[in-house]
Design brief:
The protein is about 45% helix and about 15% strand. The chain is an alpha/beta fold. The chain folds into three domains: about 120 residues, Probable tRNA modification gtpase trme, domain 1 (Gyrase A, domain 2), CATH 3.30.1360.120; about 140 residues, Four Helix Bundle (Hemerythrin (Met), subunit A), CATH 1.20.120.430; about 160 residues, 3-Layer(aba) Sandwich (Rossmann fold), CATH 3.40.50. It is found in: Cytoplasm.
Length: about 475
């Protein structure tokens, strides 16, 4: 492991009230001491204050003072230091956080002063990687840090917090203990067949693996799709014939004029995307070009894009004009959505006699319908509620943390396959040595989830997606 001392700006780019520089490693306190002048207790910081020399900083204390260029004595900024000595810090190394004013130039200058003291600029995610390597958290918790930072909704935030506090880790650890228990009994039977052979209960171990291991692994695998919806949000698309009010509906959902609305059919030529949050779920809404026969060449390109959005959408909002009867094109469009979660949105419900004008044919009567008026905003809350209901109806919650990413899902698939082979081997009296190989495969997959055993290139890929400073 690289034990050099690292530093990075930990706050987002741009200007702000406060900017934080994080320093971690064995030389963190000495390097900061070289550029920091501490103010005596109860006094305002001044450039004449003496250097602390490093030994006087107590852990979990904050110190007021100045950052000075040690060569020229030039004052850079008045700051507060937060000192956290190892192992009671985020990385379990000596950590100092410099709270300066939040201008990009002042933060850059302080960082350069630290680099001149032999500190190395941190790589993306390097602080969290050190926290993982030093045993402060396992890999699932480290990955949850990135999910927490990128959370777009309350649901995503709750999921990340549950995983960061170790709920998923606890379940995976329980699965591992069960596998180790079976493996120990099996290898005892292999090494001491005369003594342990009669005591090894293959059918009992098979039942134990089915109930205590495979069932939990499969629950986590099934929960992946739920985690995907909550983590990445839901993709929804607004479709329908031209001039049925798709763009008006989108503006109403977002409560802002995001899409251009005119009385001219075919105004929307390209797809427009925006996010909204309903019941803590982030929903990507796409307004699309109207679907119709014989479009002009430019409009045809927009319709092709609409069909691409339809293919990838989780939820389709099929908009109908309550002021016009259903025609063949409406039925054809609906027929292309047989494998999708669909809401029929009867727009322009404010029109007189709309219920008499718009009558659904038998093929469309089984779909869920909501009447709205994008002009007056009625029915919009019910539509948002329906979208959220559709999301949560597909969320297979389990009594523990969600599986939040594709890497972990793939490893759970590997573990499930290996455990299934073990169960089959026990039930069919395969050689214990062969069953042991499958058990080791299952354990390897489980251990890679938490990072107990994981290749360096896997860690490189995981932490490269983090921001610098975290």
């Amino acid at each position: 492991m690289d034990t050099s001392t690292i530093a990075a700006v930990a706050t987002p780019e741009g200007t702000g009230g406060i900017g934080i520089i994080r320093v971690s490693g064995p030389e963190a306190i000495a390097a900061v001491t070289a550029v920091f002048r501490r103010a005596p207790f109860g006094q305002k910081a001044s450039g004449s204050d003496k250097t602390d020399a490093g030994g006087g900083f107590q852990s979990w204390r904050m110190y007021l003072g100045h950052i000075l260029d040690p060569h020229s004595g030039t004052l850079v900024d008045e700051v507060i230091l937060a000192v956290m000595r190892a192992p009671h810090s985020y990385t379990r190394e000596d950590v100092v956080e410099i709270q300066a004013h939040g201008g990009s130039r002042v933060l850059e200058k302080i960082l350069n002063l630290l680099i001149s003291q032999g500190i190395r600029p941190a790589q993306p995610g390097e602080f969290t990687r050190r926290a993982f390597i030093n045993g402060r958290m396992d890999l699932t918790q480290a990955e949850a840090v990135a999910d927490l930072i990128s959370a777009r909704s309350d649901a995503t935030l709750d999921m990340a917090v549950s995983q960061m506090t170790g709920q998923l880790s606890d379940v995976v650890s329980s699965i591992r203990q069960s596998l180790v228990s079976v493996l120990g009994s099996l290898e005892a039977a292999i090494d001491f067949p005369e003594a342990a052979g009669e005591e090894f209960d293959g059918s009992g171990q098979s039942l134990h693996l089915s109930r205590e291991v495979l069932q939990q692994v499969n629950q986590l695998r099934e929960a992946y799709e739920s985690g995907r919806f909550l983590r990445q949000g839901v993709q929804s698309v607004i479709i329908g014939r031209p001039n049925v009010g798709k763009s008006s509906l989108m503006n109403c959902l977002l409560n802002q004029q995001r899409a251009i609305v005119t009385e001219v059919a075919g105004t929307t030529r390209d797809c427009i995307e925006a996010y909204l949050t309903t019941r803590g779920v982030s929903v990507l809404v796409a307004d699309t070009a109207g679907l119709r026969k014989d479009p002009d060449p430019i409009e045809r390109l927009g319709i092709e894009k609409t069909r691409e959005y339809m293919a990838s959408a989780d939820i389709v909002l099929h908009v109908l004009d309550s002021g016009r009867p259903i025609d063949h094109e409406d039925v054809v469009i609906y027929g292309q959505l047989t494998d999708k979660s669909v809401v029929l949105v009867k727009n322009k419900a404010d029109l007189a006699d709309h219920e008499k004008v718009l009558r659904l044919p038998p093929a469309m009567q089984q779909a869920f319908c909501i009447e709205v008026s994008a002009l007056h905003g009625t029915g919009i809350d019910a539509l948002k509620q329906r979208v959220a209901d559709m999301v949560f109806s597909s969320v297979a919650r389990v009594g523990h943390g969600f599986v939040p990413n594709w890497r972990q899902k793939c490893l759970l698939d590997q573990a499930a396959e290996a455990v299934s082979k073990v169960i089959s081997g026990l039930e069919n009296w395969r050689l214990p040595e062969l069953i042991s190989i499958d058990l080791h495969d299952a354990l390897s997959a489980i251990d890679e989830i938490t990072g107990k055993y994981v290749e360096t290139d896997v860690l490189d890929e995981i932490f490269s997606r983090y921001c610098v400073g975290k």
